[in-house]
Amino acid sequence: MHPHNPAPHGSPAGYSQGCRTRAMCLHGEGSEFLSCAEAAIRRRGDYRLSRLPAHQPLPRHVLAEPATPSDPAVREVHGTPWGYARGCRDTRACPNWARGGMTCPEARRRYMQTYTARRSAGTGTPIEHGTSNGYLLGCRNPATCPGDRTGLTCTDARSHYRQQLARAAGIAPRTESIDARAAATRIRELRALGLSLRHISTLTGTGRTTIAQLTGEGKTVRTRITPTTLDRILAIDVTTLTTSGMLTDAHERTQALAS
Ligand SMILES: [Zn+2]
Ligand SMILES: [Zn+2]
Ligand SMILES: [Zn+2]
């Protein structure tokens, strides 16, 4: 959002910009959103709301956690940097905007801010999320870990690492399933580039049904996969595909295989 745009009614910034009384405000007691004055007060007393941008209108009935769509594939994406990467780039179009929740563009902004600050500071021992080390430094809840740029959490990285150790030690790997979020994100990126489910299936050596379940295009949604499948999917480098023209080559190869 451009900072010079007038703040919408129902937001703390609306109050700062002069909407001081209930009579002036578009939103009253019966409306979905608070009046600007009420929003300004509510935001001051609520840590979660205070983290939202001041120009975001606040719903009258704020749930402990913002309401989420019933489709889990959608639920886990909004309010995250990878929701943004997936195409949710308009602050007001993100479903979390009207729910008093963190929007995808805001989550992305914060993520980049932290990332840049960490890099320029170059001091201390900031947790590098999406690593086994992050897990050891205390990031053990996959629900709160911001993950790395692909959405891989510290918990995932840790179980990955343990699997590798076990394999190296000659222990037959258990068919343990892990969080599929990072894989789902990668596949959605590939889909956004125009790759078909069959093409992705060929590139990753993973069944087409599994691919469809990960993107939410199947009859059911899959949230867990084996570490091997995760490895195969993450091995597809989206940047290389788009910049090297391999996208076309790979596509032709698939066509050749299919014919
Ligand atoms: Zn107002
Ligand atoms: Zn969103
Ligand atoms: Zn973490």
Short description:
The protein is mostly helical and 259 residues long. It is built from 14 helices and two strands.
Report on this model:
The structure is a single chain. The chain has 14 helices and 2 strands. It folds into 4 domains: 9-62, no CATH class; 70-124, no CATH class; 132-168, no CATH class; 178-243, 434 Repressor (Amino-terminal Domain) (Orthogonal Bundle), CATH 1.10.260. The chain is an all-alpha fold. It is elongated and about 70 Å long. The mean pLDDT is 79. The chain has a two-stranded antiparallel sheet. Bound molecules: zinc ion (3 copies). One zinc ion is lined by residues 127, 129, 134, 139, 145, 153-154.
Averaged pLDDT, please?
Answer: 79
Please write the CATH class name of the largest domain.
Mainly Alpha
Adjacency order of strands in the biggest sheet:
1-2
Number of domains: 4
> Could you give the count of β-strands?
2
Q: What is the global morphology?
A: elongated
State the distance separating the first and last CA atoms: 49 Å
Tell me the radius of gyration.
22 Å
Annotated CATH architecture of the largest domain: Orthogonal Bundle
Count of DSSP-assigned helices: 14
The profile of the biggest β sheet is: 2 strands, antiparallel
Classify the secondary structure makeup into a structural class: mainly alpha
Which cofactor or ligand species appear? zinc ion
- CATH fold title of the largest domain: 434 Repressor (Amino-terminal Domain)
Approximately how much helix is present in the residues?
40-55%
Strand and helix order: HHHHHHHHEHHHEHHH
Segments where pLDDT lies below 50 for 5+ residues? none
Strand content: under 5%
Task: Identify the quaternary structure here.
Answer: single chain
